[in-house]
């Protein structure tokens, strides 16, 4: 039977041919957790008396949600995990000065054809490399840490084709929002989305990571980009080696298909309080904005700060602005290219590698009645802080323009 | 497994930031989490739920974050089972792993009224409400074994 990329990866991991609907046990290539879920994973392992790891080299740990610790309990949680890492002698440990887990998986670990599970819903991000990557709860991840296996229901595969060159200001966020607006948050439940890019170089890894990241907002089991030249180039440039490629069969069976014409798109936003409440920028233009957040595992990459710097160069922001490159690598490159200087000169507060604002944790929690424009992935009620705060999700261009004008603004030249 | 209780209804797309806000995730104590279940929608939910209730809700219940505290909080607050038109995958697994039965029933909100008393057969998915019988998707196989044991840790300890 011809197989989709999903079916091919899961067949390999299950050691037998699988079909949609099958409940299968699969081997995991990478099992990961961060600070806020990690202590819970460890707690489950302790309670079940199963304190061992299946393969030290395949466990990845990163501190990001509570980085740097905003309170004593957060510091205590990180201490618990540091002790575990030491006890188990885990080599792939990233303390608070490395970056957000999903960005680190993308930069250093994820490969086409892998099965990646992590105790965080945005694990779908690694799908950008052509891995089958999904989030799970602490108990499921504890079991995977111990056994190197997990169970799952083989999803149906849905194919999305990206055609043409993205119109000005269009990035991976707009593609994610287009899918959410068109299909809504429940349509892809139980499906794996496979994205085929007709012209690979026009849709770089940064954009792909954003779209894959928001696969979880579509409730997809995974959102993968079919590996191509851009996948190989990215891995080569970040890690110095060529990845082994894997492709779906030509006659693969997709439950349905959808094509997005990138050159005909216009920037989109998701209005409160739902990720699928998608509108064009013109529909919400002029709404006053208190705070703008550019960052997160969704949009904290080089191209995001490149776009923001282009818009903010030599100007001053009118809304409070927080910019957070997702990792040390992204921060350092942004610094070398002058983006950090531009953002700081424009009045933004800049740090790196924390999830803080996105989940209403720290480093810019939304107050009652405030309106936020954020490049992160969720605008649920109370997500970024106060239950009364309103969050508009956008890509970097709309966020930077809105910061500049102090109100939601269409990115014009 | 038969469960019975009064219905508390919620809408579509109830996300895990609603079920348990992120500021409470630094702890896993069920009693602490129970007091904050559904806080953004109804800060008094745990009082309402304490006598034992069945949640009936719409699509992709539990969408969003992987936080396992969402399942722990609802169970500890007194939720005996959740009947929804569909569930988000991670949340569904978290419920099973924490011994909280979850039943998929298309048109759940249309068929079941707030406050009515329902009786659920977890294995068969049969739901008796107001003298009618609805049939949802029951829980079988290993998931049922985990539920019967009371959760994944209890299950793992039992089979060891």
From TrEMBL, chain A:
Q: Catalyzes what?
A: (2R,3S)-3-isopropylmalate = (2S)-2-isopropylmalate
Q: Does the keyword field hold Lyase?
A: yes
What EC identifiers does the entry list? 4.2.1.33
Q: Pfam families under this entry?
A: Aconitase (PF00330)
Molecular-function annotations in GO: 3-isopropylmalate dehydratase activity; 4 iron, 4 sulfur cluster binding; metal ion binding
Q: Kindly give the Gene3D superfamilies that the UniProt entry links to this protein.
A: Aconitase, domain 3 (3.30.499.10)
Q: What class of enzyme is it?
A: lyase
Key words of the record: 4Fe-4S, Amino-acid biosynthesis, Branched-chain amino acid biosynthesis, Iron, Iron-sulfur, Leucine biosynthesis, Lyase, Metal-binding
Q: How is the cofactor bound?
A: Binds 1 [4Fe-4S] cluster per subunit.
Q: Where is the Aconitase/3-isopropylmalate dehydratase large subunit alpha/beta/alpha domain?
A: 8-283
Positions annotated to bind [4Fe-4S] cluster: 297, 355, 358
The protein's matches in CDD domains, at most eight in alphabetical order, are given as: IPMI (cd01583)
Q: Which HAMAP family would you find in this protein's record?
A: LeuC_type2
Q: Report the protein's function.
A: Catalyzes the isomerization between 2-isopropylmalate and 3-isopropylmalate, via the formation of 2-isopropylmaleate.
Assembly with partners or alone: Heterodimer of LeuC and LeuD.
Can you say what this protein is called? 3-isopropylmalate dehydratase large subunit
Q: What is the organism of origin for this protein?
A: Candidatus Acidianus copahuensis
UniProtKB/TrEMBL annotation, chain B:
Annotated catalysed reactions: (2R,3S)-3-isopropylmalate = (2S)-2-isopropylmalate
For this entry, list what GO says about its biological process.
L-leucine biosynthetic process
Q: Which Gene3D superfamilies match?
A: Aconitase, domain 4 (3.20.19.10)
The pathway where this protein functions is:
Amino-acid biosynthesis; L-leucine biosynthesis; L-leucine from 3-methyl-2-oxobutanoate: step 2/4
**Could you confirm whether the keyword Lyase appears in this record?**
yes
Q: Which domain of life is it from?
A: Archaea
Q: Where is the Aconitase A/isopropylmalate dehydratase small subunit swivel domain?
A: 41-103
UniProt cross-references to InterPro entries, sorted A to Z: Aconitase/3IPM_dehydase_swvl, AconitaseA/IPMdHydase_ssu_swvl, IPMI_Swivel, LeuD, LeuD_type2/HacB/DmdB
GO MF, one annotated term: 3-isopropylmalate dehydratase activity
Pfam families in alphabetical order: Aconitase_C (PF00694)
Q: Which UniProt keywords apply?
A: Amino-acid biosynthesis, Branched-chain amino acid biosynthesis, Leucine biosynthesis, Lyase
Q: Which SUPFAM superfamilies match?
A: LeuD/IlvD-like (SSF52016)
Please name the top-level EC class of this enzyme: lyase
Question: What's the Enzyme Commission number for this chain?
Answer: 4.2.1.33
Q: Give the protein's function.
A: Catalyzes the isomerization between 2-isopropylmalate and 3-isopropylmalate, via the formation of 2-isopropylmaleate.
The entry describes its oligomerization and partners as:
Heterodimer of LeuC and LeuD.
- Tell me the protein family, please: Belongs to the LeuD family. LeuD type 2 subfamily.
PANTHER family reported in the protein's UniProt record: 3-ISOPROPYLMALATE DEHYDRATASE SMALL SUBUNIT 1 (PTHR43345:SF2), 3-ISOPROPYLMALATE DEHYDRATASE SMALL SUBUNIT 2-RELATED-RELATED (PTHR43345)
Enumerate the NCBIfam families for this protein: LEUD_arch
- What protein am I looking at? 3-isopropylmalate dehydratase small subunit
Source organism (scientific name): Candidatus Acidianus copahuensis
Please spell out the taxonomic lineage of the organism that makes this protein: Archaea, Thermoproteota, Thermoprotei, Sulfolobales, Sulfolobaceae
